Amino acid sequence: MSLRPWRDIDRRVSRQIHVGSVPVGGDAPISVQSMTNTVTSDVQATISQIKELEEAGADIVRVSCPDEETTTALKDIVKAAAVPIVADIHFHHARAIEAAEAGAACLRINPGNIGNAERVRDVIQAAKDHGCSMRIGVNAGSLEKHLLEKYGEPCPEAMVESALDHVRILQDHDYHEYKISVKASDVFLSVAAYQQLAEAVDCPLHIGITEAGGYTSGTVKSSIGIGSLLWAGIGDTLRVSLSSDPVDEVRVGFEMLKSLGLRHRGVTIISCPSCARQGFDVIKTVQTLEERLAHVSEPITLSIIGCVVNGPGEARETDLGFTGGGAGSGMVYVSGRPDHKMSNEEMVDHLVGLVENQAQMMRDNQPDNPVASENEI
Ligand code: SF4
């Protein structure tokens, strides 16, 4: 029995596969993915976006490979990337083989859509030869015609049946390094499909709500959909799909995992909404701190509370804290205890310095494995 059983999440036990160096499934941390939106054949632009995503903490990045130019570019992109690259392929078997040869760690492709048996065999062989895993990506918006006719409309059963049809093809070729997604833009449909799929297969699941919308609406929708799956223990890797900067997808993904205690990357700011009692401008301070601390990957908690109504209580539970007081200054908390006073003007620079020092100390103590260390708190 854990100390706080109401926080426990029993993760569904899946078998583990690898996307390049990143384990997915089993007891691996839930990985966060995003996708580039540059033109893939513009190698420099694509690499620079991948670097931004890596900086934000992305574990895996996907790039579209619609034509031969892009699979040619993929070679240089894979070489420059520190994270494994997933090649997004639709239908075209030659692109899949080229992407595997170019060093893609994973192919996002539905084997049932590749074409004749020979093409399917060639793609699977290329994946085996080059150590590529695959993601079967079922999407409610592009379900096979015969399933739509059978079920009348996209529904969880149709999506799971589609996934299982693709799985069968891979298994018939003795290929087992795959994960599956069953995404829909409708939260109910997507969640129900994942719940049914989780019962039907033992492979890892890539979860997400597709075409979720813009930054705010998409974040809310994804948090409800992905959040409820994660809370039920379902999901081994995730992508938040936003019509926004791909870096936002990574940040939102980590915030979801942090909210559920599943991963702990970066600074978590606990802050009050502010009101007339605030001793400093809470909203502006939090916005500035979020920007200035975005580069910190060590798991550190920081409370920024406008006044003593909730300040001391929240500070007790965080690594560092600031609570507004009177006369233009407030109290800095260290390890839950009031430590020293600081003026409102100097407080942001001061807190950034304290967080960076703490991050440095954590790095000095655990230099080897950032994923392991972020999960050890
Ligand atoms: S902590 Fe204080 S300033 Fe913040 S919302 Fe509550 S009462 Fe208002």
What features would you describe in this structure?
- The structure is a single chain.
- This protein is an alpha/beta fold and 377 residues long.
- The chain has two domains: 9-259, Alpha-Beta Barrel (TIM Barrel); 267-374, Sulfite Reductase Hemoprotein, domain 1, CATH 3.30.413.10.
- Helix content is 43%, strand content 19%.
- It has 13 helices and 15 strands.
- The strands form three sheets. It has an eight-stranded parallel β-sheet.
- The longest helix is centred in the last third of the chain and has 22 residues, at 344-365.
- The radius of gyration is 23 Å and the shape is elongated.
- It binds iron/sulfur cluster.
- Iron/sulfur cluster is lined by residues 272-275, 277-278, 305-307, 309-310.
Write the layout of secondary structure elements.
Elements lengths: L16 E3 L2 E3 L6 E5 L7 H14 L3 E5 L3 H13 L4 E4 L4 H10 L3 E3 L8 H13 L3 E7 L5 H7 L4 H17 L5 E6 L3 H14 L5 E2 L7 H17 L5 E3 L6 H14 L7 E5 L10 H11 L7 E6 L5 H6 L3 E5 L4 E6 L2 E7 H22 L4 H5 L3
Parallel strand pairs: 3-4, 3-10, 4-5, 5-6, 6-7, 7-8, 9-10, 11-12, 12-13
Antiparallel strand pairs: 1-2, 13-14, 14-15
Helix pairs in contact: 1-2, 2-3, 3-4, 5-6, 6-7, 7-8, 8-9
Bound molecules: iron/sulfur cluster.
